[in-house]
Every structure is written in C-alpha cells, then in structure tokens.
Amino acid sequence: AVLETANQQQQALLKQVVRVFSAIGPTTSPASAAEFVTNSLPTRLPEFIYDPDNGCTFDVWLNRYEDVIVQDGSTLDEAAKARLIVSKLDVVAYAHFTNHILPKRSSALCFDDTVKTLKELFEHNTSVFARRCTYLRTQRNGESLSDYTGMVNRQHEMAEFNAITPEQMKCLVWICGLHTPDDADIRTLALRKMEDNPQTTLKQLSLEIQQFLNIRRDAKLLGSPPSLLQPEVNAVTIKKNCTQNPPSPCFRCGGSHWAINCYFIDKTCHSCKRIGHKKGYCKNFTNKRSRNRKKSRATSNVVVIASTGTDVAPANRIYRKVKINGATIQMRLDTGADVILLCIKDWIKINRPKLLPPLVKLKSADNKDIKVRGYFECDFDVNGHKGRGNCYVADTQSLLGLDWIAQNKPLLRRLTEDTICKVSTTTLNHLRSSTSADSPIGPRDSKMEEQFNRRYGARRRHFEVGDAIYAKDCRGPKSTWMSGIIVRKTGNATYIVRCGKLLWTRHINRLR
C-alpha cells in the first residue's frame, strides 16, 4: 500500500510539471533564430593562415567554408559577407591584402572582388607541374603509416591529379626526362607552353620545341661566319688531346713531372758518373736511352694541284656523289684528309643530325685551326659500297677523306686509278727514254766502297786523353756541336768528354 501511494504521488508530480512547461511555450520567433545563427558565424569560421607548402591556400579554405558563409549567412548582404571574410585573415595575410589593394580600402570591394583578389594573392607558389612532380617523388621518411597515408592524399589533392588528362600525363613524363644541363632551355620553354595552354598535346609540344632548336641553331650559324677556304691546298692534321699531367713518373728522378722539365736533366749521377738523372735511377735512365728517341709526329698530307708541265699530267680534282643517311651529297675526294668533313650547307641538307663534341682537333696545311662544330655517326654509300663512320661538320668544303675510302681497298684503287695511271705512265716513259738499251754503261763507281774499306787505306779514328774535340749536343730540338776535351776512353769506340762543366759519354761517331 505504501508503494502504491508513492507511485501515485510521482505520477501526479509529473503531470504538474508537464502542465507548467506547456504553459510556458516557445518564446523565440523564427526571425530571432536566424539572427542567432548569423551572429554565430564569426565564431564558427576559423582564422585563415596562409601556408602553401602544406596546401593551406585561400582556395582550399573557401571551398571548405563557402556553404557556411553563403547558406547560413543568407540574410547578410554582399558587403557584410566581404567584411566577414576579411575579418578572418590573420595579421600577415591581412597586411598583404590591404597593401595590395591600395589606395582602395577593403570595405570598398564587393564580395566577388574580395574573393577574386584573395585567390590570386594566396594561391600555390608553385606550378601544377612542379606539384605533380613532387607528388610522384613522395617518399616515407620516418613517418607513421597513417601520417604517410595522409601526406600522400594531401599531395594528391594539391597536384590536382583528378583533373589530369592522358596527354598532360605524357607531357609530364616527357618534360621530366629532360634532366641534363644542356636541356635547361628546352625545359623552360616546355613548362611555359604547358602553363599557357594546359591542353597542349605531346605532339604539339614536341613540334614547337623542335622548331625552337632549329631557330637557335640557325642563329648560331649566322653569328659565326665560315672561315676563308684555300682553293689550292686542302690539308687535315689530327692533333690528339693530351693530358696536362704526365702518364708516368719521371725516369730521371721519379717525380710527377715531364722528363724535359726535370731538375736533374743536366746533373751528374754520383753512382755511374753520367749526366741526366738522379742517383738511384741509373737503370731507368739506361733503359730510356736505349729506346727510340724519335718523337711521334702527326701526319700532314697535303693535296695540291699538280704541275702543268709536260712531264707530269695535270691532276684534276675528283668529285664523288656520296649518300649520307639517304641524302646525296657531292664531295671532293681528298686523300690528304684523315677524317670526313662536311660543310654547313650540306649538313643542313641532311636534316641537321645531332652533333657530338669533336674527338680531335683539326688543322689546315698552314697550321691554322679549323673550327669544328662537332661530329655525328652516319651510314654512307660511295659508289655502291655501304659503310658506317664518323663525319665532322666544319667551316670547310665537303671533303671525302681516307677514313671512309680505306674501308674498301678496291674502292680506293677505283677512285684514284685515273690520276695515278696518268702520272705513272708519263714518268715511266720519261725514264725509259733516258735509260735506253743503246746508252753505254760506264765503269762501276767504287769511291764510296773504298772510303770505308781498310784494304784501300781507310783508318779507324782515335782520340787521346786531352785532345780538343767537338761533341754533338742532342738536348735541343736541333742538334749542335760543342767544343770540349777527351777525359778518358771507356770502350772500343766510346769516350767521356768534358764540355764546359758537363761530362758526357759519346760514341766516336758523335765526335770530331
């Protein structure tokens, strides 16, 4: 009975509370509710902080809160919306915005102009292409797996990969492949083209870049006029590139310098008493002296118009048509040219193949440098003989040298047999007429034989100690004779001589 009484009292209390709240009823009108929402907008919108490296641009901020400003602030006019957005800029962004619109004030701009200006000022500081390249090079550097996943998602949105087309992807890969310093101009031009017209196709981009390269190449040719050619003489010498440091230690002292610049070149060794090396390097010095002293020199074959005399037939110039990469070029046969030379005009005729840096230096017969643009490897066809070799582009006329001709010896004989036969026939006829069978043959000349034959009185030369002599000096480029005296005899035909302060070992053939 007690529980039942308590339950009845509780039900009566609840009914009384319901009646009280029902009597109170709603006290706010719809207009006051809308006003409350509008007044709460400044607190609902966060402050805008410009951080382009992390994707915090004004465009991203507006896309997130545009519905709040437009829908919830529908009762606001355009000027009030503009003031609301400007009030959410941080100190740095607000100063940048107000300085940019001077002499106008922020209140003088409408909502659309304010949004447009803020998008221009606080956009990405890198191009779409750069953001896409950064996205493709994204790597995990110690972040957690969830942070790394979020970073990939954020950079994907920043790179705008959802809007990329297949042609834009091709152009992206094409430009990324131009990574060498020589392609810097091409990369800059290609990026400018993609920024101006993002819908450019790969074919259009390639054609425009090729046109730019052709114009730049032609401009270089116009800026450097070809050198004057000598009509009568064509010569090509190959000068190999040499390093500044010697390839091996000095045989005189073991130092890292050239032997000709050695300090001991005129010093006397205390062990063997010979001049020209340091003590302890006698063996190296002996081995070096036993080798051939002749220096290798670059050959210089000169092609000159033959004499017009009656004894030798005139050598006419020979021109041959050569196919280079399918294009027919008329080249002059020059057996004095060690390499193949192509003039600028003929190089343009064969569609300007890409040139590589020259491997050698070229000189003319008068020892003047020939300006070489570069060389390229190509296929050639000379009189039906096909081959492959290097062709140098220079400021000369086109010359067909031995490099290609020598690949086929029958071809070399066929190209030159006309001129060779004319010269050889004339020379042989002249010799035959001067040595006919009717001419009497005189006695054999034996003066040279008797000069070195002891039976006819020839004597061996001999020097005594203290005799004044002249010794041959071979140190310079040209041999000279120096006065001196005999110090002692060291062999059957060798002597030690003193020339001034120098002691030399000389063979009797180098003494007089």
UniProtKB/TrEMBL annotation:
It holds the Pfam family DUF7083. The keyword Transmembrane helix does not apply. InterPro entries: DUF7083 (IPR055510), Peptidase_aspartic_dom_sf (IPR021109), Retrovirus_Pol_polyprotein (IPR050951). Keywords: Endonuclease, Hydrolase, Nuclease, Nucleotidyltransferase, Transferase. GO terms for molecular function: endonuclease activity; nucleotidyltransferase activity. The keyword Nucleotidyltransferase applies. Gene3D superfamilies: Acid Proteases. It comes from the Eukaryota. Residues 38-124 form the DUF7083 domain. PANTHER family: PROTEIN CBG26694, PROTEIN NYNRIN-LIKE. This is Uncharacterized protein K02A2.6.
